[in-house]
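Quick one: structure for this chain?
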Amino acid sequence: MRRLLLLRHAKAESTSPSGRDRDRPLAARGRQDAAELGAWLAGQRSLLPDLALISTAVRARETWDIVQQQISDKVPLSDGAPRELAAHLPDLYGAEPVQLLAIIRSLAAEDPERLMIVGHNPCLHELALGLIGRGDTTGRATLAHNLPTSGLVVIDFAVESWDRLAFGNGQLAQFVSPKLLKEA
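Got it. Here's what it folds into:
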């Protein structure tokens, strides 16, 4: 079984000093939401990624840094080795769902059991909707409308290798957002 975690970056400022979209930093609310999601994730050992692929956009990198810090602070590792295995990929910014699927499939040789992608809408939302063929009915209905900032989609696949991933063969295991966590 393989588990894919799709994390949309946290709430960002509407502009950047450079004027470039890629350079927009997180807003105060985004930093808070990322920390809350990271703290929640730290308590969910079965969701901790073996590998994280992060967009090189500032807001995605900052989101991952905050989430990773929360995970590291709350989950002591018995062997002392760092948990983080992350790669920053420029191709995640502006990618289409088919391109993301190709990136995921290319990880078959590395074969992480749990893979997280920290990226952007509309691509992550479209990818999630395309991959999910079954699973949590309430989560699917909520996700159908939007993947909000700091939204996390957890999709399970009954495959032994990432190169077997296909649209429609995933099962939604969980959909979480800061708003849903506050309501719970």
